[in-house]
Amino acid sequence: MDNARVFKMSFAGVYPHYITKAEKKGRTKEEVDTIICWLTGYSQKKLQDQIDKKISLENFFAEAPQIHPNVSKITGVICGYRVEEIEDTLMQKIRYMDKLIDELAKGKAMEKILRQ
């Protein structure tokens, strides 16, 4: 799948998959929201507004209040790529989010996921 197609995908379309993945492993929607808000700087209300507007992933990250300063501490492989080596900054942010949700589903403690 080419990047442009991914960037145009609706965040509201991807979000339920994150929740399903987490809930299958005994985690919660609230934990998913905490992770996304931590990464992007959105408040819970603003996150819900973005979902309701069916905004694209590209605009979701473009409008994010602030990407967390500890984002550089997110390392590892997701979808066959090392997140810290992805050159396209938007794709890297999307993969950071994927990686954090993956860590949640694998049972990692929230303190470690949020790089505290």
Strand content: under 5%
Question: What is the CATH architecture descriptor?
Answer: Orthogonal Bundle
* Strands ordered across the widest β-sheet: 1-2
Oligomer: single chain
Summarize the structure.
This protein has helices spanning 3-8, 11-24, 29-40, 44-52, 57-62, 89-105, 110-113, and strands at residues 77-78, 81-82.
List keywords for this structure.
single chain; 116 residues; mainly alpha; Helicase, Ruva Protein, domain 3; two-stranded antiparallel sheet; 7 helices; 59% helix; globular; DUF2200 domain-containing protein; SP1917_dom_sf; UCP033199
Any overview of this molecule?
It is a single chain. A hairpin with a 2-residue loop joins strand 1 (77-78) and strand 2. Helix 2 (11-24) runs parallel beside helix 6 and helix 3 packs antiparallel against helix 6. Strands 1-2 form a two-stranded antiparallel sheet. It has a single domain (3-113), classed as uncharacterized protein sp1917 domain (Helicase, Ruva Protein, domain 3, Orthogonal Bundle), CATH 1.10.8.290. With 116 residues, the protein is mainly alpha-helical. The chain has helices at 3-8, 11-24, 29-40, 44-52, 57-62, 89-105, 110-113, and strands at 77-78, 81-82. It is built from seven helices and two strands; from the N terminus they run H-H-H-H-H-E-E-H-H. InterPro entries: SP1917_dom_sf (IPR023204), UCP033199 (IPR014580). This is DUF2200 domain-containing protein.
